[in-house]
Q: What sequence folds into this?
Protein backbone atom coordinates (compact mmCIF):
# COMPACT_ATOMS: atom_id res chain seq x y z
CA UNK A 1 0.00 0.00 0.00
CA UNK A 2 1.40 3.40 -0.98
CA UNK A 3 2.45 5.83 1.72
CA UNK A 4 -0.47 7.81 3.06
CA UNK A 5 -3.19 5.20 2.50
CA UNK A 6 -4.93 3.72 5.50
CA UNK A 7 -8.23 1.90 5.90
CA UNK A 8 -8.83 3.77 9.15
CA UNK A 9 -7.95 7.48 9.07
CA UNK A 10 -6.09 8.76 12.10
CA UNK A 11 -9.01 11.02 13.01
CA UNK A 12 -11.71 8.42 12.35
CA UNK A 13 -13.12 9.10 15.81
CA UNK A 14 -14.31 12.50 14.59
CA UNK A 15 -16.82 10.98 12.16
CA UNK A 16 -17.91 7.97 14.24
CA UNK A 17 -20.80 9.90 15.91
CA UNK A 18 -22.24 10.64 12.47
CA UNK A 19 -21.85 7.35 10.59
CA UNK A 20 -23.01 3.75 10.74
CA UNK A 21 -20.43 0.98 10.47
CA UNK A 22 -22.18 -2.01 12.04
CA UNK A 23 -22.62 -4.73 9.42
CA UNK A 24 -26.09 -5.82 10.53
CA UNK A 25 -27.43 -2.26 10.30
CA UNK A 26 -25.72 -1.70 6.96
CA UNK A 27 -27.35 -4.83 5.52
CA UNK A 28 -30.77 -3.82 6.77
CA UNK A 29 -30.58 -0.23 5.54
CA UNK A 30 -29.42 -1.22 2.06
CA UNK A 31 -32.33 -3.62 1.77
CA UNK A 32 -35.08 -1.35 3.04
CA UNK A 33 -34.18 2.03 1.52
CA UNK A 34 -35.58 3.25 -1.79
CA UNK A 35 -32.25 4.72 -2.93
CA UNK A 36 -28.61 4.13 -2.07
CA UNK A 37 -26.15 6.83 -3.17
CA UNK A 38 -22.51 5.75 -3.43
CA UNK A 39 -20.06 8.65 -3.41
CA UNK A 40 -16.92 8.65 -5.50
CA UNK A 41 -14.07 10.61 -3.92
CA UNK A 42 -14.12 13.41 -6.53
CA UNK A 43 -17.81 14.22 -6.02
CA UNK A 44 -17.53 13.95 -2.25
CA UNK A 45 -14.72 16.52 -2.30
CA UNK A 46 -16.80 18.84 -4.50
CA UNK A 47 -19.89 18.61 -2.30
CA UNK A 48 -17.88 18.92 0.91
CA UNK A 49 -16.59 22.28 -0.31
CA UNK A 50 -20.04 23.66 -1.12
CA UNK A 51 -21.57 26.35 1.02
CA UNK A 52 -23.87 24.71 3.55
CA UNK A 53 -26.97 26.27 1.99
CA UNK A 54 -25.96 25.03 -1.48
CA UNK A 55 -25.26 21.50 -0.25
CA UNK A 56 -28.67 21.53 1.45
CA UNK A 57 -30.39 21.29 -1.95
CA UNK A 58 -28.55 18.07 -2.79
CA UNK A 59 -29.26 16.62 0.63
CA UNK A 60 -32.93 17.57 0.42
CA UNK A 61 -33.18 15.60 -2.82
CA UNK A 62 -31.50 12.54 -1.33
CA UNK A 63 -33.76 12.65 1.72
CA UNK A 64 -36.91 13.02 -0.39
CA UNK A 65 -35.86 9.91 -2.31
CA UNK A 66 -35.68 7.94 0.97
CA UNK A 67 -31.98 7.72 0.26
CA UNK A 68 -28.89 6.87 2.22
CA UNK A 69 -25.29 7.87 1.53
CA UNK A 70 -22.67 5.13 1.31
CA UNK A 71 -18.91 5.66 1.52
CA UNK A 72 -16.96 2.50 0.82
CA UNK A 73 -13.75 1.81 2.68
CA UNK A 74 -11.57 2.32 -0.41
CA UNK A 75 -13.17 5.72 -1.08
CA UNK A 76 -12.54 6.64 2.57
CA UNK A 77 -8.89 5.69 2.01
CA UNK A 78 -8.76 8.07 -0.96
CA UNK A 79 -10.35 10.89 1.00
CA UNK A 80 -7.65 10.54 3.68
CA UNK A 81 -4.85 9.74 1.23
CA UNK A 82 -2.61 12.79 1.50
CA UNK A 83 -1.92 12.54 5.21
CA UNK A 84 -3.96 9.63 6.54
CA UNK A 85 -6.28 12.27 8.03
CA UNK A 86 -9.74 13.33 6.89
CA UNK A 87 -9.83 17.05 6.18
CA UNK A 88 -12.11 19.14 8.37
CA UNK A 89 -14.47 19.99 5.51
CA UNK A 90 -15.07 16.26 4.94
CA UNK A 91 -15.94 15.73 8.59
CA UNK A 92 -18.23 18.76 8.54
CA UNK A 93 -20.02 17.54 5.42
CA UNK A 94 -20.60 14.09 6.91
CA UNK A 95 -21.99 15.77 10.00
CA UNK A 96 -24.27 17.94 7.82
CA UNK A 97 -25.58 14.89 5.98
CA UNK A 98 -26.41 13.16 9.25
CA UNK A 99 -28.04 16.28 10.70
CA UNK A 100 -30.28 16.46 7.62
CA UNK A 101 -31.71 13.10 8.65
CA UNK A 102 -29.79 11.02 6.09
CA UNK A 103 -27.91 7.94 7.21
CA UNK A 104 -24.23 7.76 6.24
CA UNK A 105 -22.89 4.22 5.95
CA UNK A 106 -19.13 3.63 6.00
CA UNK A 107 -18.96 0.16 4.54
CA UNK A 108 -16.25 -2.39 3.95
CA UNK A 109 -16.78 -3.67 0.41
CA UNK A 110 -16.80 -7.25 1.70
CA UNK A 111 -19.95 -6.49 3.71
CA UNK A 112 -21.78 -7.06 0.43
CA UNK A 113 -21.42 -10.77 1.10
CA UNK A 114 -23.80 -10.36 4.05
CA UNK A 115 -26.14 -8.16 1.98
CA UNK A 116 -26.36 -10.73 -0.80
CA UNK A 117 -26.44 -13.60 1.68
CA UNK A 118 -29.66 -12.24 3.14
CA UNK A 119 -31.36 -12.98 -0.19
CA UNK A 120 -29.50 -16.05 -1.53
CA UNK A 121 -29.38 -19.36 0.24
CA UNK A 122 -25.86 -20.58 -0.63
CA UNK A 123 -22.36 -19.12 -0.61
CA UNK A 124 -21.92 -20.33 -4.18
CA UNK A 125 -24.87 -18.25 -5.34
CA UNK A 126 -23.43 -15.15 -3.68
CA UNK A 127 -19.87 -15.75 -4.88
CA UNK A 128 -20.89 -16.06 -8.52
CA UNK A 129 -21.83 -12.37 -8.61
CA UNK A 130 -18.36 -11.34 -7.48
CA UNK A 131 -16.89 -13.65 -10.12
CA UNK A 132 -18.93 -12.16 -12.96
CA UNK A 133 -18.37 -8.56 -11.88
CA UNK A 134 -14.58 -8.96 -11.71
CA UNK A 135 -14.41 -10.97 -14.93
CA UNK A 136 -16.22 -8.32 -16.91
CA UNK A 137 -14.30 -5.37 -15.46
CA UNK A 138 -11.33 -6.46 -17.64
CA UNK A 139 -8.51 -4.02 -16.92
CA UNK A 140 -5.16 -5.76 -17.45
CA UNK A 141 -3.15 -2.86 -15.99
CA UNK A 142 -5.18 -2.47 -12.80
CA UNK A 143 -4.38 -3.03 -9.14
CA UNK A 144 -6.87 -5.90 -9.27
CA UNK A 145 -4.94 -7.58 -12.09
CA UNK A 146 -1.68 -7.16 -10.16
CA UNK A 147 -3.30 -8.70 -7.09
CA UNK A 148 -4.24 -11.80 -9.09
CA UNK A 149 -0.70 -12.06 -10.49
CA UNK A 150 0.64 -12.14 -6.93
CA UNK A 151 -2.09 -14.34 -5.42
CA UNK A 152 -2.87 -17.24 -7.72
CA UNK A 153 -5.22 -18.92 -5.25
CA UNK A 154 -7.37 -15.81 -5.18
CA UNK A 155 -7.39 -15.77 -8.98
CA UNK A 156 -8.56 -19.37 -9.06
CA UNK A 157 -11.38 -18.66 -6.62
CA UNK A 158 -12.60 -15.32 -7.92
CA UNK A 159 -12.06 -15.63 -11.67
CA UNK A 160 -12.39 -19.38 -12.19
CA UNK A 161 -15.01 -19.86 -9.48
CA UNK A 162 -13.20 -22.61 -7.55
CA UNK A 163 -14.18 -23.31 -3.92
CA UNK A 164 -17.49 -21.66 -4.71
CA UNK A 165 -19.00 -22.55 -1.33
CA UNK A 166 -16.24 -20.74 0.58
CA UNK A 167 -17.78 -17.95 2.67
CA UNK A 168 -14.54 -15.96 2.94
CA UNK A 169 -13.82 -15.07 -0.70
CA UNK A 170 -15.33 -11.57 -0.59
CA UNK A 171 -13.26 -10.62 2.47
CA UNK A 172 -10.03 -12.04 1.07
CA UNK A 173 -10.50 -10.42 -2.34
CA UNK A 174 -11.38 -6.92 -1.17
CA UNK A 175 -8.78 -6.96 1.63
CA UNK A 176 -6.07 -8.03 -0.81
CA UNK A 177 -6.77 -5.34 -3.40
CA UNK A 178 -7.13 -2.55 -0.83
CA UNK A 179 -3.75 -3.55 0.61
CA UNK A 180 -2.20 -2.90 -2.81
CA UNK A 181 -3.79 0.48 -3.40
CA UNK A 182 -1.45 3.07 -4.87
CA UNK A 183 -1.78 6.72 -5.73
CA UNK A 184 -3.75 7.43 -8.94
CA UNK A 185 -4.63 3.77 -9.51
CA UNK A 186 -8.44 4.24 -9.85
CA UNK A 187 -9.02 1.38 -7.43
CA UNK A 188 -11.83 3.22 -5.63
CA UNK A 189 -13.82 3.57 -8.84
CA UNK A 190 -13.14 -0.02 -9.90
CA UNK A 191 -14.34 -1.38 -6.57
CA UNK A 192 -17.41 0.86 -6.76
CA UNK A 193 -18.17 -0.63 -10.18
CA UNK A 194 -17.87 -4.15 -8.75
CA UNK A 195 -20.01 -3.31 -5.72
CA UNK A 196 -22.76 -1.76 -7.83
CA UNK A 197 -22.72 -4.68 -10.24
CA UNK A 198 -23.13 -7.12 -7.36
CA UNK A 199 -25.93 -5.10 -5.72
CA UNK A 200 -27.79 -4.79 -9.00
CA UNK A 201 -28.49 -8.50 -8.71
CA UNK A 202 -30.46 -8.22 -5.49
CA UNK A 203 -33.87 -9.68 -6.29
CA UNK A 204 -37.07 -7.59 -6.33
CA UNK A 205 -35.29 -4.23 -6.43
CA UNK A 206 -36.22 -1.41 -8.81
CA UNK A 207 -34.03 -0.07 -11.60
CA UNK A 208 -32.11 2.96 -10.34
CA UNK A 209 -32.18 2.05 -6.65
CA UNK A 210 -28.39 1.99 -6.58
CA UNK A 211 -26.75 5.25 -7.63
CA UNK A 212 -23.21 6.50 -8.06
CA UNK A 213 -22.23 10.16 -7.76
CA UNK A 214 -18.99 10.83 -9.63
CA UNK A 215 -17.30 13.46 -11.78
CA UNK A 216 -15.02 10.87 -13.35
CA UNK A 217 -16.08 10.12 -16.92
CA UNK A 218 -13.70 7.17 -17.02
CA UNK A 219 -15.29 5.67 -13.91
CA UNK A 220 -18.77 6.19 -15.33
CA UNK A 221 -17.64 4.63 -18.59
CA UNK A 222 -16.27 1.58 -16.78
CA UNK A 223 -19.59 0.97 -15.09
CA UNK A 224 -21.48 1.46 -18.35
CA UNK A 225 -19.13 -0.93 -20.15
CA UNK A 226 -19.25 -3.44 -17.31
CA UNK A 227 -23.02 -3.67 -17.50
CA UNK A 228 -23.08 -3.77 -21.30
CA UNK A 229 -20.54 -6.59 -21.40
CA UNK A 230 -22.27 -8.69 -18.77
CA UNK A 231 -24.15 -11.78 -19.87
CA UNK A 232 -27.89 -11.18 -19.74
CA UNK A 233 -28.49 -13.56 -16.83
CA UNK A 234 -26.00 -11.59 -14.69
CA UNK A 235 -26.78 -8.06 -15.91
CA UNK A 236 -28.96 -7.06 -12.96
CA UNK A 237 -30.98 -3.89 -12.54
CA UNK A 238 -29.99 -0.56 -14.07
CA UNK A 239 -27.65 1.70 -12.10
CA UNK A 240 -28.11 5.49 -11.99
CA UNK A 241 -24.94 7.55 -12.46
CA UNK A 242 -24.92 11.24 -11.56
CA UNK A 243 -22.31 13.87 -12.18
CA UNK A 244 -22.86 17.06 -10.19
CA UNK A 245 -24.07 19.00 -13.27
CA UNK A 246 -26.50 16.16 -14.01
CA UNK A 247 -27.65 16.17 -10.38
CA UNK A 248 -28.15 19.95 -10.48
CA UNK A 249 -30.36 19.60 -13.54
CA UNK A 250 -32.42 16.93 -11.75
CA UNK A 251 -32.81 19.29 -8.77
CA UNK A 252 -33.99 22.06 -11.08
CA UNK A 253 -36.47 19.90 -12.93
CA UNK A 254 -37.93 18.62 -9.68
CA UNK A 255 -38.32 22.19 -8.40
CA UNK A 256 -36.00 21.62 -5.45
CA UNK A 257 -33.51 24.17 -6.76
CA UNK A 258 -34.93 26.93 -8.96
CA UNK A 259 -32.71 29.98 -8.40
CA UNK A 260 -30.08 30.48 -11.09
CA UNK A 261 -27.65 32.09 -8.63
CA UNK A 262 -27.56 28.96 -6.46
CA UNK A 263 -27.18 26.71 -9.50
CA UNK A 264 -24.19 28.79 -10.56
CA UNK A 265 -22.78 28.74 -7.03
CA UNK A 266 -22.82 24.92 -6.96
CA UNK A 267 -21.24 24.69 -10.40
CA UNK A 268 -18.61 27.33 -9.54
CA UNK A 269 -17.41 25.36 -6.52
CA UNK A 270 -16.23 22.46 -8.65
CA UNK A 271 -15.16 24.48 -11.69
CA UNK A 272 -11.56 25.08 -12.68
CA UNK A 273 -12.14 26.72 -16.02
CA UNK A 274 -14.96 25.48 -18.22
CA UNK A 275 -17.19 22.54 -17.24
CA UNK A 276 -17.38 19.74 -19.80
CA UNK A 277 -20.65 17.82 -19.78
CA UNK A 278 -21.89 14.97 -21.93
CA UNK A 279 -25.25 16.07 -23.28
CA UNK A 280 -27.25 17.60 -26.09
CA UNK A 281 -28.48 21.07 -26.97
CA UNK A 282 -31.89 21.62 -28.49
CA UNK A 283 -30.83 21.07 -32.12
CA UNK A 284 -28.33 18.27 -31.50
CA UNK A 285 -29.31 14.86 -32.82
CA UNK A 286 -26.86 13.00 -30.62
CA UNK A 287 -25.04 13.59 -27.36
CA UNK A 288 -21.57 15.12 -27.34
CA UNK A 289 -19.05 16.74 -25.01
CA UNK A 290 -20.06 20.36 -24.44
CA UNK A 291 -17.64 22.81 -22.80
CA UNK A 292 -19.27 25.73 -21.00
CA UNK A 293 -18.54 28.23 -18.27
CA UNK A 294 -20.52 27.75 -15.08
CA UNK A 295 -22.54 30.84 -15.98
CA UNK A 296 -23.39 29.51 -19.45
CA UNK A 297 -24.31 26.11 -18.07
CA UNK A 298 -26.53 27.64 -15.38
CA UNK A 299 -28.30 29.68 -18.06
CA UNK A 300 -29.00 26.57 -20.14
CA UNK A 301 -30.22 24.55 -17.18
CA UNK A 302 -32.93 27.10 -16.37
CA UNK A 303 -34.00 27.48 -20.01
CA UNK A 304 -36.82 25.21 -21.24
CA UNK A 305 -35.13 22.63 -23.49
CA UNK A 306 -31.84 24.48 -23.04
CA UNK A 307 -29.71 21.40 -22.46
CA UNK A 308 -30.14 17.74 -21.64
CA UNK A 309 -27.25 16.57 -19.47
CA UNK A 310 -26.43 12.87 -19.63
CA UNK A 311 -23.28 13.15 -17.52
A:
Amino acid sequence: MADGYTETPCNMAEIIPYVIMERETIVNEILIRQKCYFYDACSFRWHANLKKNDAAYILKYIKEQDGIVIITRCILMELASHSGILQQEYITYIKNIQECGILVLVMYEEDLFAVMGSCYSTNAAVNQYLTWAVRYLKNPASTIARTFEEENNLYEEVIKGKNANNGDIYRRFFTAVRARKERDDNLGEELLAICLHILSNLPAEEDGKFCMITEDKEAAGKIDTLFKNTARQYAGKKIAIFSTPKLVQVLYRQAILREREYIKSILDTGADGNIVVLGALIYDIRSRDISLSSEELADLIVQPNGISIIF
About this structure: The chain has a mean pLDDT of 91. The chain is about 50% helix and 10% strand. Residues 3 and 182 are 8 Å apart (CA to CA).
